[in-house]
Amino acid sequence: MDITHITPDQVVYWQWGFFSLNATLLYTWGVILLLTIGSWLVTRKLTSEIHLSRWQNLLEIVVAGIRDQIREVSGQKPEPYLPFIGTIFIFIAVSNLLAIVPGYIPPTGSLSTTTALALSVFVAVPFFGIARQGVLTYLKNYVQPSLFMLPFNIMGELSRTLALAVRLFGNVMSGIKIGAILLAIAPLFFPIIMQIMGLLTGMIQEVDPKPDTVNRFL
After folding, report:
1. Is residue 34 pLDDT above 90, yes or no?
2. Four-CA torsion 192, 198, 78, 159, nearest 10 degrees
3. I want to staple 183 with a disulfide (CB 3.0 to 4.6 A). Which of 120, 162, 170, 191 is the partner?
4. CA 217 and chain centroid, separation
5. Distance (Å) of CA 38 to CA 61, 74, 189, 206, 216
6. pLDDT band of 106, cuts 50, 70, 90
7. Mean local confidence (pLDDT), 53-82
8. Residue 15: strand, helix, or coil
9. How far apart are CA 107 and CA 169, in angstroms?
10. Which helix (H) or strand (E) holds 134?
């Protein structure tokens, strides 16, 4: 990506009237298509026998890892949250890992993508909280330990959503920018190192939970 482009939203491949196809849309659809096809290929021949395919082994490792992470953070049964959290985890992981492909621009480097993901979490937290605790019990969390904490708890929810969106966007975008700058200075060695560091940073975002928030509202 050209270092003059702040986000993949600015990389426009095709435009017709008000509609434009930018890098964010193109690569987001690409990742979704890849995950859809990959999921179908991996799960079409699932078996409970002793000898498993390598892809089923990989799938079970990923699912078990996400399940253990949910259980460790929330202290609850992970099954109700596994589809939602697992989907976000795998989408972000694949989006970031594909950055090693030449010409690919991670859609997670777009603030619109990270905002959409953060809003999904913003909606999912009360959804799961109400489903587990009931409406009244869940709403009481916002006035704990006293009624005066209501505006602060609401602001905390909003600021958490903003932080989730900006943090992932900033880490991925900065990694791309630094890599592009170093590519112009030293065409081989430094960009490889920065690419690896960028991948590690992107992956860290998916395993950086906030146990206090999770336990309080779920």
Report:
1. yes
2. 180
3. 191
4. 20
5. 16, 29, 32, 20, 36
6. confident
7. 85
8. strand
9. 9
10. none
